[in-house]
Design goal:
About 45% of the residues lie in helices and about 15% in strands. It is α/β, with parallel strands linked by helices. The chain has three domains: about 45 residues, 434 Repressor (Amino-terminal Domain) (Orthogonal Bundle), CATH 1.10.260; about 140 residues, Rossmann fold (3-Layer(aba) Sandwich), CATH 3.40.50.2300; about 130 residues, Response regulator (Rossmann fold, 3-Layer(aba) Sandwich), CATH 3.40.50. The strands form two sheets. Strands 2-1-3-4-5-11 form a six-stranded parallel β-sheet, sandwiched between helices. The protein has a six-stranded mixed β-sheet with strand order 7-6-8-9-10-12, with helices on both faces. The longest helix has 18 residues. The mean pLDDT is about 90.
Length: about 350
């Protein structure tokens, strides 16, 4: 393995000069930098990550915890985090909690034992106690939350405007002629679910439509849950919703299948719109309308905020909650009227 010492010997420079040149330090002249970089490329020099971590007292590793890696939204967030982390010289380690609080606590313990430099996390839906994240902070490992907002915790958060997304999705259904609307929500103790439910209700109130408590249906973020809950909405075929907002990708996919299984025509008899706009959405029959979330950008901003805390080794003057905007993607599952 080619070392800094070898490059320095061949160029007749000190090891520290070579190191600063490779870091593009302003202390080193342009001609010297050029000589160092050319030889480093010629010799295929790569920094020793173990030596770097010892030198900097860091592992150059960022932990990521998501509820479900198979979910395309979380996949896009991970890609955004990795893009920024790689550019800044960090590696990532990915964990999935499977939406289990116990699994999440175990993942955090592993991150602590392995001394990751920081954590980006979307919390498990079951979680209520945040002590494991506080332990990380106390040990000097910063945490950034994304997607699922966390109350009563001092740190950066990157979320989307869930209220506005749900409001626009519901108003779209109303504009398509839906008057009897249902909302398939996730666990109501989660702020993200409260915001989406709030947006749904606000749209109904704006248009003087009834909010039927029995059609505000709560369940886990699972496809089989969305399927079962939708079938229950159509148990009485004489009185059923003509429009459904599904508050997550998994729930929406389950609802889409259920509508077809009970023999309802979509969107003529019931229109459907979901969240997160998975890649499979335009491939379904009919293609699924969605509220698209900027997952890649969310990952980028989360990583930037985290690395800034790692590099500065201290609390920022003010923690930020960044709120990104969503996009309404209309497809056949909800589009009853044709655009002119």
């Amino acid at each position: 393995m080619i070392t800094l010492k070898e490059i320095a010997r061949r160029l007749g420079l000190s090891k520290s000069t070579v190191s600063r040149a490779l870091r593009d330090s302003s202390e080193i002249g342009a001609e010297t930098k050029q000589r160092v970089l050319e030889l480093a490329r010629e010799l295929s020099y790569t920094p020793n990550p173990i030596a770097l971590s010892l030198q900097r007292s860091r592992s150059q590793t960022i932990g990521i915890i998501v509820p479900e890696i198979a979910n395309s939204f979380f996949g896009s967030v991970i890609s955004g985090i990795e893009e920024v982390a790689y550019r800044q010289g960090y590696h990532i380690t990915i964990y999935q909690s499977h939406d289990s609080s116990d699994r999440e606590v175990t993942d955090v313990r592993n991150i602590l034992v392995r001394r990751a430099d920081g954590l980006v996390v979307s919390t498990a839906s079951q979680i209520r106690n945040l002590d494991h994240f506080r332990t990380l902070q106390e040990q000097g490992i910063p945490v950034v939350f994304f997607d699922r907002k966390v109350e009563n915790f001092q740190t950066h958060q990157v979320i989307v405007d869930d209220f506005d997304g749900a409001f626009r999705a519901t108003e779209h259904l109303i504009e398509q002629g839906c008057r009897k609307l249902a909302c398939l929500t996730g666990p109501q103790h989660l702020p993200i679910v409260q915001q989406r439910t709030g947006g749904f209700k606000a749209a109904l109130q704006k248009h003087d439509l009834p909010i039927r408590a029995e059609w505000l249906v709560e369940g886990p973020f699972r496809q089989n849950s969305g399927n079962q809950l939708t079938k229950e909405l159509f148990a009485d075929l004489s009185d059923h919703p003509d429009g459904i907002l599904a508050a997550s990708t998994s729930i929406a996919l389950g609802a889409h299948l259920a509508i077809r299984e009970v023999g309802m025509k979509m969107p003529e008899e019931v229109a459907l719109i979901g969240f997160s706009d998975p890649p499979i959405a335009p491939l379904l029959d009919p293609p699924l309308s969605s509220i698209a979330q900027p997952g890649f950008e969310m990952g980028q901003q989360s990583a930037e905020l985290l690395i800034d805390m790692i590099e500065k080794k201290g609390k920022p003057i003010r923690y930020q909650t960044r709120i990104l905007q969503t996009d309404l993607v209309v497809r056949r599952s909800s589009q009853r009227t044709q655009k002119v």
